[in-house]
């Protein structure tokens, strides 16, 4: 249980405080946050007897015992929960008091949602270093890394395919639906789980210059859910991009905008869905092929999609989009020396990328399953699923969604190469299956 993390604890100093133990206890009932926040919320909800009130009345000397009894229970019932797998009491107690509140916020969702696979989110870009003794083990486990693994960013696809040209017509295919997206966060802000309402608004205002640059280059529109930008003196600062509920629901239905994240218990527990709808919205290009969400799980979800026959084009467009955004003064993406681009969830570190194509393989899926397609794609590190996402059925015409699984410790160019190789191997097997 102690493993490598516990062996490092001796280098830490500090003891768990009364406040931090109370924080831990409340994490099992109302969520882990600062003690002062509990007191404020409990007071605002009085005289109702809430779980927060009850937690405040608990004997704080037993708080840490209660938390780790719950952790031990999750370890038995949900061994796949990596947060509880690597959560060691001695490590928590060794953290300075100022760091303990933030650490509990990072792991809160894994305790409140036992079925989590990871169960943790970073609250600021520096958390992966501040709490490296914990996060390193979770990340190495999830991404099949080692203590010596380092992420390298490389978008050069000139040696992939035909000198960087990835034309699927040469593989016997026609037009494909192609999509690629990345998560990004700015180094000057907390990550979404720790952002206050004011910081969310400030972030949106910081991004306006980037959206102006994109509109000059690609046209399009900014759609914002933020009712206003606060007050300057007694005057309310209007949001020129604000949209009403009717337009918002129209965009959600068209898959342009994301849904209210409060429906996701994992994001809600991590504080990522707080202060809705402030600081939330998107930009969409005039041709509708590029979208940037702001204020979701990561501050930015930048995506490109198109129907075509050149796989390289959608990646090149995305890279150009990223370069345009980061060329604006005051906008710098958060990066880690070891883990590449920083994301809220450790699962998306590194490239932060998910790329996918929809391919029709009726012969391989003639039995109504994607089993044969998975056998081909698995060795390349590719996932196969239905066109509606994970756990959805394959299309009636045999259409499947194919995407690389790896995000971290893999170069962007290698993601493109594996995806193209997967398409080529699938088409060879599809042709062979049709000749039987």
Q: What is the compact description of this entry?
A:
With 436 residues, the protein is an alpha+beta fold. The chain contains 16 helices and 12 strands.
Q: How would you characterize the overall build of this protein?
A:
With 436 residues, the protein is α+β, with helices and mostly antiparallel strands. The chain has 16 helices and twelve strands. The chain has helices spanning 3-8, 18-26, 35-45, 51-56, 63-77, 82-86, 89-94, 97-112, 127-130, 132-142, 197-218, 245-253, 265-269, 311-326, 371-377, 412-434; strands at 176-184, 221-224, 228-232, 235-238, 281-284, 290-294, 300-308, 335-336, 340-341, 353-360, 382-385, 399-404. The chain has an eight-stranded antiparallel beta sheet, covered by helices on one side. Strands 3-4 form a two-stranded antiparallel sheet. The chain has a two-stranded antiparallel sheet with strand order 8-9. Strand 8 and strand 9 form a beta hairpin. It is globular, with a radius of gyration of 23 Å. The model is unreliable at 6-61 (pLDDT under 50).
SSE ordering = HHHHHHHHHHEHEEEHHEEEHEEEHEEH
Distance between the termini: 53 Å
Measured by DSSP, the beta-strand proportion falls in 5-15%
Summarize the biggest pleated sheet.
8 strands, antiparallel
Question: Based on CA inertia axes, which overall geometry fits?
Answer: globular
**What's the gyration radius in Å?**
23 Å
| Strand order across the largest sheet | 2-5-6-7-1-10-12-11
| SS-derived structural category | alpha+beta
Low-confidence stretches: 6-61
Question: Total number of helical segments?
Answer: 16
Mean pLDDT: 87
Helix proportion of residues, in percent? 25-40%
Quantity of strands, as a count: 12
Q: Oligomeric state of the chains?
A: single chain
């Amino acid at each position: 249980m102690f493993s490598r993390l516990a062996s490092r604890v001796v280098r830490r100093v500090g003891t768990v405080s009364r406040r931090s133990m109370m924080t831990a206890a409340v994490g099992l009932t109302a969520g882990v946050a600062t003690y002062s926040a509990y007191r404020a919320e409990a007071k605002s909800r009085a005289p109702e007897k809430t779980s927060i009130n009850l937690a405040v009345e608990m004997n704080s000397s037993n708080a840490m015992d209660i938390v780790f009894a719950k952790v031990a229970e999750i370890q038995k019932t949900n061994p796949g929960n990596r947060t509880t797998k690597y959560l060691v009491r001695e490590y928590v107690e060794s953290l300075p008091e100022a760091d303990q509140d933030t650490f509990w916020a990072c792991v809160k969702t894994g305790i409140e949602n036992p079925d989590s696979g990871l169960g943790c989110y970073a609250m600021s870009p520096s958390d992966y270093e501040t709490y490296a003794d914990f996060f390193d083990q979770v990340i190495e486990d999830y991404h099949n890394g080692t203590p010596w693994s380092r992420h390298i960013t490389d978008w050069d696809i000139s040696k992939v395919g035909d000198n960087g040209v990835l034309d699927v017509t040469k593989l016997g295919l026609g037009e494909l639906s192609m999509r690629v997206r990345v998560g990004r966060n700015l180094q000057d802000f907390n990550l979404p789980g720790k952002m206050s309402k004011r910081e969310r608004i400030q972030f949106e205002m910081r991004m306006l210059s980037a959206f102006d640059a994109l509109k000059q280059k690609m046209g399009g529109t900014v759609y914002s859910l933020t009712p206003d930008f606060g007050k300057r003196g007694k005057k309310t600062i209007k949001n020129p991009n604000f949209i009403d509920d009717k337009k918002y629901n129209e965009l959600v239905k068209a898959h342009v905008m994301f849904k209210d994240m409060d429906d996701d218990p994992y994001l809600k527990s991590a504080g990522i869905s707080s202060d809705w709808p402030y600081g939330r919205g998107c930009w969409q290009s005039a041709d509708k092929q590029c979208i940037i969400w702001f204020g979701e799980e990561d501050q930015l979800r930048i995506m490109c999609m198109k129907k075509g026959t050149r796989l390289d084009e959608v990646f090149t467009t995305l890279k150009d989009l990223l370069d345009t955004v980061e060329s604006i003064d005051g906008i710098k993406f958060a990066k880690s020396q070891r883990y590449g681009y920083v994301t809220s969830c450790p699962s998306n570190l590194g490239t932060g990328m998910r790329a996918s194509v929809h391919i029709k393989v009726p012969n391989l899926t003639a039995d109504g399953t994607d089993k044969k397609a998975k056998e081909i794609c698995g060795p390349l590190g590719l996932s196969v699923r239905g066109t509606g996402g994970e756990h959805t059925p394959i299309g009636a015409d045999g259409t499947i969604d194919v995407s690389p699984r790896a995000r971290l410790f893999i170069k962007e160019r290698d993601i493109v190469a594996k995806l193209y190789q997967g398409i080529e191997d699938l088409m060879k097997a599809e042709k062979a299956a049709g000749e039987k």
